[in-house]
Amino acid sequence: MRLPLSIVTAWLMSVLAAHAGEETVRLAGLSVEVWSHPAGANVPQPTLLFSHGFHGCSTQSRFLMEAFAEAGYLVLAPNHRDATCHGGEAGWAERPELPFQQPQRWDDTSYRDRAEDLRRLIEAARTDPRFRARVDWSRLGLVGHSLGGYTVLGLAGAWPSWRLPGIKAVLALSPYAQPFARHRTLAGLTAPVMYQGGTRDFGITPALRRSEGSYDSSPPPKYYVEFDRAGHLAWTNLRAVAHDSIVAYSLAFVDHYLKGEAASAVLTRKLPGVAVHRYASELGSSDPDAGGGSPPHAPARPLSER
Fold first, then answer.
1. Tell me, what CATH number does 100's domain have?
2. Based on CB atoms within 10 Å of each CB, which residue in 1, 63, 87, 162 is the most buried?
3. Number of other residues whose CB lies within 10 A of the CB of residue 165
């Protein structure tokens, strides 16, 4: 989708300004944005890898990355090859590898370079003196928006050949998940997943929430939150819609599944401004008869048994 120049300009202004606790580094041959709380610099931290959307960039969702850092997470966000801002070298007019309207044509070779970026980033961080002691490798999660959501779902097992061991949670923000639904591979997810969509996110959200869509096709633990009046760019700094609620649900999810904290009531509660909220996990289920979810108050099938 081509965006008006005014929107592009606003996007660039929103992502280029540096903020406290944020730095740009070179790692694994990639330009990587790093967020962390200064107080956690000398201790291993639960770590999130963020994958940006098509023609987005590492800093596109700064509001959420800052919230993660403030909560004690180390966040690593690379620029993928298709990045157009914050030093990205792609052009706005460049087309995707395959049409988004034809998910049946996508397979595990589609945008595999993005998966390899995150894989190489992890391997480099394990030995880099700046990060090897800062990453708690037992608490590693993935976050992705749009095509980044596709990337992290694939790494969590939606493309079996991409599967990355050791992932504890996957946060899929308006993810392009249609290829997995078409190929019926979402049952292969090996980590808890939270999908987020919006009532004005017309290109993505219907495929997440419809019968036998992405949420229904995923094994528990799983969550789905749809924000009222949120469009596809609500998860970026370009559109300040539902940001407080996005942060609340995102933190509740990763705090529980990465930090191992007691589940916040937010995980099983429909907050104001939320149009749809579903879940099926060890916390119970909002829809016991839909999509193979667990019955109320029954534990989800342990990941070790999948």
1. 3.40.50.1820
2. 162
3. 7
291: containing domain = 5-305
Per the CB < 8 A criterion, the answer to whether 285 and 291 are in contact is no
| Count of domains observed in the chain | 1
User: What pLDDT sits at residue 273?
Assistant: 97
Collapsing DSSP to helix, strand or coil, 256 comes out as helix
Residue 279: how many other CB atoms lie within 10 Å: 23
Q: Is the CB of residue 205 less than 8 Å from the CB of residue 226?
A: yes
Strand, helix or coil for residue 151: helix
The pLDDT of 176-195, averaged and rounded, is 98
4 three-state secondary structure = coil
Cα gap 187→201, rounded to integer Å: 24
Query: How close are the terminal C-alpha atoms of the chain, in Å?
Result: 38
Q: Which whole number is the average pLDDT over 133-154?
A: 97
Residues counted in the chain? 306
Task: Decide if 74 contacts 259 (C-beta within 8 A).
Answer: no
Q: Which two tokens stand for residue 301?
A: 């099938």
pTM comes to: 0.88
284-285 and 74-78 beta bridge pairing:
unpaired
Consecutive H or E run containing 121: helix 112-127
